[in-house]
Amino acid sequence: MTEAYIEFCPQASLVTWLKEYPNLVILRTLSKAFALAGLRCGFALANSPVIELLLKVIAPYPLSTPVADIAAQALTDQGIEAMKRRVTEIVRNRTYLADALKNLPNVEQVYCSETNYILVKFTDADCVFRSLWDQGIILRDQQRQYGLAGCLRISIGTRPRVWNSVITAIKNRQTANV
């Protein structure tokens, strides 16, 4: 089971299930809430027999020393506190952005999110995507995914200027089309 975004919704963790399900493996990453995507580092939570089996098949040195050092630093008390502050800020920014988008006429729906991104259904998703792309704002087009026609994914960061520029760009695009 992946818990890549669990720091944004810790109450949904399945760690307590490890007692009941001996073969359960929970995968986590430092990419999302820890803001270490370039590190490409994650870890597994599992019962001892499963970990022992994994250790038999894993590469002898799966992490370089610099990656291991950075990961260890991220998981210190200070690193955890920094991650929690970052998550709190991202959640606040996500709420602000979602509320602002809900008021735009070309937004059909802003889906609930417990992650560092929101999914938005637009009446004119192709135009919004292209317009923002042309302004250097990269969204993820989800329209080819089953059931997500008209949907774009907007990542939430910790820099207000970034998500304010998304809102401004969408508003400016609407004004230009009126």
Could you characterize the architecture of this molecule?
- The chain has helices at 48-57, 65-74, 77-102, 125-134, 160-177; strands at residues 25-29, 42-46, 107-110, 117-122, 140-141, 151-155.
- The chain has 178 residues and is an alpha+beta fold.
- It has two domains: 6-75, no CATH class; 92-177, Alpha-Beta Complex (Aspartate Aminotransferase, domain 1).
- A four-stranded antiparallel beta sheet has the order 3-4-6-5. Strands 1-2 form a two-stranded antiparallel ribbon.
- A hairpin with a 6-residue loop joins strand 3 and strand 4 (117-122).
- Helix 3 (77-102) packs parallel to helix 5.
- It is elongated.
* CATH fold-type name of the largest domain: Aspartate Aminotransferase, domain 1
Given the helix and strand composition, which structural class is it? alpha+beta
| Sequence of strands across the biggest β-sheet | 3-4-6-5
CATH superfamily of the largest domain: Aspartate Aminotransferase, domain 1
Distance between the termini: 47 Å
Mean of residue pLDDT? Answer: 92
What portion of residues is helical? 40-55%
Any low-confidence stretches, pLDDT <50, length ≥5? none
